[in-house]
Amino acid sequence: MAGEQLESTRQALREAVAHAERAAELARLLDAAQARLAEAERAAEELGGVRERLGEVEERLAAAQEVEAKLRKDLAEQRYQTEVARWKLSSVQVARWSRLGDAIKTGKSNPVRLARGLRGAAKPAKRPSAPRRQPVPQTKPEARSVQGAAFQATTSTRTVGGVSVKLKPFRVPTGPNTRPHLTAAVVAEPHAEALLRYEWRQTTGFTPKDFARVLAAEVPHLLLVESVTEGPWAAELKERGEGLRALLAWCAERGIRTVFWHTRGQVGDFAAVASLFEHIVTALPSSVAAWGAALAQGEPGPGRREPSLGLLPFAIQPRVHNPLPLGGDRFDRVLTLDELLPAHLSYPDVLTSYRWPKAVDCPPGTEPWRMAELAACGTPIGTEPDERRAHVALRQAYASGTMTQKADELLEAIGLPSARATLNISVIMIDRGDLDHTLAQVAPQKGVVQLVLLSDAEDAEKRARAAMPDHVDVMVRGTDPELSTGAVLNRALDLCEGDLVAVMDGQDAYGEHYLTDLSRAFLFATADIVGKAAYFAHLRDVAATVLRQPDAEYSYLPEVAGATLLARRTVLRSIGFADVSEGWDEVLMRQCRTDGIKVFSADRYGYVRLRDRDRWLLGSALLVDYGPAEPHAFV
């Protein structure tokens, strides 16, 4: 009995010792964990200090980079102005009157030298090419991942009916922007961001935590926040979060305009947060009444006015909604909208899909902005592809208002300057002896601010002023039999004041939408000269209408027809017209290739070359019809 008790005591003692050892081990582990925790807390404090110092260093670095960029820009501008001064001096030196003066001065005491000098001065001299602004060299910053929309297509394969088709993705342009003097901070989803990003210098990707640091690098003139449902700002808009309030307070301190843009969702879901902004605009006209009622019920905070209310609907953005084609032919099928735009596509991939099919069958109720974007990309809408109808739809999509025009209205409403470059046109019109026909070609054109008419007809100026609208400045100059066509065009070019200069020929025919359609290319093409390499022609001797180079639409080419020339005035003046009568346009195109000036061929419509006979054209073009060309060319 005693032995059993002794053994039991020994067992209990062993268990007690084991428990004590485990307790001691646990105590050691706890001490070690507490030591590691204390060390982690110290490290966290040090890391917080490092982050603060890093933020300060990044701000100083951003400021230094901004100063460096400005210095680089100023240096590049000084170099450019120096080259311009040299070019002007060279231009003066090769001018005929300057060379005549030099010849007279050097030969005044030597008749032989004087005669030789005058003969040399009378010869045409090649004008020096004007200098071009070179891109400002930039230092490449280290790659930094930021939140924001990606704007390049990522999906190059489409599947229709179980068949996969490989596409060449549409390259979304990175610039330029319409108003480089204006900076906007924008919170938007990819679609809206793509519409706005070319209208100003646009800052995106900032979050509720880092906006003060990001926006301080380039303080914006405008904050525009869309009614987003995804991303770091979605919760802030839903709950009137502290981050949004801090952003708006930051803008108020700096006099930055604030705009809330309602594009989706119920008005009641966003009314409270929208009331914090200075201005409210909606993309949905049907919601204006609801917004008015919501604002009438609310009370602005102390010292605040009730937000203004306006419209900012979705509209086409010419930089991305345009008829520039994808590489290769269109998919030879009519697709439904669901087949064309599956739900997984990002917006850059949508821009690729827009250009892909032969036509798109859109169901009733399709959003008007979607139809306009499709039409602006040159894609026929309907079950039967029709190129002429597609061209009219493209024209109507642009005529309904671009995002640039909508941005003008927004900026004017909130009190910011909307100044931007225009596309006003000066027309040089060559009369070939039938002044009535000549004036009938130019009078209906839109966007013309000046007509320089080259005509020897009696009372040409009076008839031209009567035919043209009152706002058009009319100048008439007679031709000189001793001067070549190129020389006469140069004289007319010196009189032009429009941003663009068109050369039109009175022996041909032009539709009323000719200049409107042609000038549109400057909204999306990166060319300085636009014209037509694809066009209709009518040959009277055989009563045949032909189509030249039908595949040359919407592409960069070595040359376009001279009678369809539309060019930036400054560029055309830097090149000038060759002192020849025949083939002046061919010489001009060769000079463009030499100087690296881009030439773009637009659509085939709106112009007809009229000739009595042209065997080369008849043999090289596609026969369309025996009959007049106007029903085919004018739409």
TrEMBL record:
Entry keywords, A to Z: Coiled coil, Transferase
Region Disordered: start-end pairs: 117-146
Keyword Transferase: yes
GO molecular function, one term: transferase activity
Coiled coil: 3-74
InterPro entries associated with the record: Nucleotide-diphossugar_trans (IPR029044)
Keyword Coiled coil: yes
Record-given protein name: Glycosyl transferase
Taxonomic lineage: Bacteria, Bacillati, Actinomycetota, Actinomycetes, Streptosporangiales
